[in-house]
Amino acid sequence: MNVGSVLVSGASRGLGAHLCRRLAADGWPVAVNYRSDADGAARVVAGIVAAGGTAAAFRADVTDEQEVRRLAAEVKETLAPVRVVVANATGPQPEARAEDVTWQDHLDQLTFFVKSPTLLLQATLPHMRRLGGGRFIHIGSEMTERALPGFSAYNAAKGAQLILARTWARELGGDNVTVNVVAPGWIPVERHGPLTDDDTRDYVAGIPLGRIGTPQDIADVVAFLASDASRFITGERITVNGGYTSG
What we know:
Blueprint: E1 5-8, H1 14-25, E2 30-34, H2 38-50, E3 55-59, H3 65-78, E4 82-87, H4 103-131, E5 134-139, H5 143-146, H6 152-172, E6 177-184, H7 197-205, H8 215-226, E7 237-240
Parallel strand pairs: 1-2, 1-4, 2-3, 4-5, 5-6, 6-7
């Protein structure tokens, strides 16, 4: 299966960086996408190379059509045609009550969770078809189940992302391209800042497995979906949150 490369969007830090390292450990050449954090992307690449893997950093705004097309071409030229896409890039997620949320708030979220994946798929699908198949993995969220007040724009866009994935799964099955969603729970990374047990206690109290999730928990599931072992799984949403939204 490891013929071709993996492209991870929004990968210079946080969950994206962990996904890159995990996929590289499985032998994939990894395209580390970033928009502005060149130093962070370089550190991710250096760590992968030091561990014996293959990776390169690629700057592109994955919400811009021309830049995404350029990105796909550069990854093909530098590493290999793209066989796996992990749509991980996200933007700010401001909180706003129903009476205050604007249409622009909705558009901002849809840009990252519908427009960007669409651009990434359209730019890389020809690669996957030439390779005889591929994987498209959306990074979703448990928020579509929790429906937290104040996050209607984010929640609605994540819901749209899920239906997008399920529709693509039906459309692209004949091309041997699987499309799935990995939906993390609360996974603390750099952008959350330093956290104490007091900060996470209430959330952890609702997790049957009794601990906060880690980036590795998500990366392992993504690595499975990228592998040949997931060849008969498509159109699925896998929630990785220790059972927080079960039942």
